[in-house]
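Thread: "does anyone have the structure for this chain?"

Original post by V.I.:
We have the sequence but no experimental structure in hand. Need at least a predicted one for the grant figures.
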Amino acid sequence: MPDDNGQVRSHLRPGLTVDIVLKQDQPTGKLTRGVIQDILTKSPTHPHGIKVRLASGQVGRVKAIIAGGDAPTS
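Reply from O.Q.:
Generated one for you, tokens below.
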């Protein structure tokens, strides 16, 4: 079972703040923080992290979920 460091698609949604690894940063593991705009991976899980597009337009695999973003407060 995948852990919750960005490998489970159902744990992600637009508006969440996450750390991702960009394709060109994979060898170094450098993280980029941003807000999810689109979830690009279609499968429910991915061993290297779910691929997302950030609001900035950058694309990478989620390594950590940082905050709830625009979670409804009811």
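V.I.: this helps a lot. Strands lie at 17-22, 31-39, 51-54, 59-67.
O.Q.: and The radius of gyration is 11 Å.
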